[in-house]
Amino acid sequence: MDKDRQILKNAAIKIVKDRIVEIGTKKKLIASNPEASVIGSENFMVIPGLINAHQHLTGDRLIQSCIPSSIKDTEAIFDWSVPIHASHSPEDDEISATLSLAESARCGITFTVEAGTVAFPEMVLKGFETVGVGGSIGSWGWDIGDGPYADSTDGVIERQLQVIELTKNHPSVKGWVTLVGHDLMSDDLLQRASNLARDNLTNLTFHLSPHAGEASKYLEKTGMRPVSYINELGVLGSHVLIGHAVHLDNSELETLLHSNTAVASSPWAYLKLGQGITKFGRHPEFLSKGGRLCLGCDTENAGDGKDLLLTARLFAGLMQEAQLEIDKPTAHYALELITIGGAEALGLKEEIGSIEIGKRADMVLIDTSGPSWQPLAPDPVMQLIWGASSSDIDSVIVGGKLIVEGKKCKNFDELGLTDEAKSRQKNLLKSAGLNPRSYWPITTY
Predict the structure, then answer these.
(1) What share of the chain is helix, strand, coil (3-state, %, to 5)?
(2) Which residue from 84, 57, 45, 287 is spatially nearest to 178, judged by alpha carbons?
(3) What span, in angstroms and rounded, lies between the C-alpha atoms of 286 and 284?
(4) Cα–Cα distance, 216 to 205 (Å, whole number)
(5) Which helix (H) or strand (E) holds 262?
(6) I need a labelling partner for 81 at 20 to 30 A (CA). Which of 5, 93, 184, 315 fits?
(7) Range of 92's domain?
(8) What CATH number does residue 234 fall under?
(9) What pLDDT sits at residue 430?
(10) Do the domain assignments include residue 16?
(11) Residue 422: inside a domain, yes or no?
(12) What are the residues whose beta carbons fall under 8 Å from the beta carbon of 220, sequence distance 6 or more?
């Protein structure tokens, strides 16, 4: 898929180092490059590497699917997730990020936006490097409240600068300015963070309005709704990615459109946490009006998994349900959101998101020889989004390097971390004073 949305049959792609340098017929490219190694077969569909625009890489990964689904979303976050983050050691951060990114890679995700709750960025960077994928790193940023790593405004800004410096010369991972968001950031912090991102040619991201209660808090405190108030501060713009923005009124929606601010939608998280996406969410409308939208998987206690193809299918369904006047099938919108459209929303359309000469060689090879793909449909995008899953992904290439082959990560032994992950889960839950249980009784024979 390129910028013109062409689907090529019997084609091949030539990669030199980390770049796509030629696209042509398979016969011609193989004949003109007899010494080149060949990846894939005639049964493989090649798509651009997938982009996960909102993912917490630490904290929840080591206690995945442990938080009760019967509690309120704010309780799940502040009584469970936040204490776990506070208990994380540097080693916990590294193992959590490595496992999360490895699972992501096997699901075809080649670029991940970390959502800004990393205690030890240098350890998470090691996770990116171990797995071999690209992305962005953020670190805790809040100057209101007493949560983990809450600090003065100056302290938060210094922490952001350290992350930018850490990744300054990195070829595939970039430091973003990240704030926790919600109502936990002062006006001064927001303004300085936005300016810091602009000055360093990077992005700013934060969480906002995943549930209706956030608007009530802003209205009580400022007399304005969240997006409208933040816009008055001069914070919004094309460098900003807001996580969630589920609860918007008409004015806020128009503000996001006019300011060219991007939104990362994580629909599975909103459904699991009961945050009202089907009743109040306006992401399909935002997209249909030209909004810069991308998709994310969030955390292992909200979206739980990192199957971005499944996330795209869910969003396609939400868009169908919205019954909007749109110019293409919802499946095609959904694929764009996790590839070329997602790249545009992150300001990376010149680098990733499509298969074009000069772009980074991030690609996913999907095996279409299995029974679920037979017979092949006339429109492969429809079949990919509505009928396939990440289990069909055989190989993944990032920056010209094969990092997943035969559905397994090549750069390290993923299963080798299993025992350590189990022991760390036990220690984290004990340290945080949490005791998750099965809803149904488990009897051991």
Answers:
(1) 40, 20, 40
(2) 57
(3) 5
(4) 22
(5) strand 262-265
(6) 315
(7) 50-345
(8) 3.20.20.140
(9) 93
(10) no
(11) no
(12) none
Number of domains in the chain: 1
Cβ 388 vs Cβ 365: under 8 Å: no
- CA distance linking residue 218 with residue 221, whole number of Å: 5
Q: Which residue carries 């011609």 as its tokens? A: 28
What pLDDT is stored for residue 69 in this prediction? 87
Write down the pTM of the prediction. Answer: 0.97
Q: Is residue 6 part of a domain?
A: no
The token pair at 368 is: 């279409």
pLDDT tens digits for range 13-61: 999 999 999 999 999 999 999 999 999 999 999 999 999 999 999 988 9
DSSP 199-251: HTT--EEEEE-SSHHHHHHHHHHHSS-HHHHHHHTT--STTEEEEE--S--HH
Residue 299: the pLDDT is 87
What is the rounded distance in angstroms from the CA atom of residue 5 to the CA atom of residue 303? Answer: 29
State the alpha helices, DSSP H only, in 264-307: 267-272, 277-280, 283-288
DSSP letter string over 145-170? SS-TT---HHHHHHHHHHHHHHTTT-
For position 244, what pLDDT does the model report?
A: 97
Q: Which residues of the chain have pLDDT under 50?
A: none
Place of tokens 């950031």: 185
Helix H segments across 9-89? Answer: 26-32, 73-75, 82-87
Phi/psi at 71 (5° precision): -95, 165
Residue 72: what pLDDT?
87
Residue 390 identity: S
Cα 364 from chain centroid? Answer: 16
Q: Is residue 194 part of a domain?
A: yes
d(CA 223, CA 227): 12
For residue 163, the model assigns a pLDDT of 98
φ, ψ at 177 (rounded to 5°): -80, 120
d(C-alpha 155, C-alpha 143), whole Å: 8
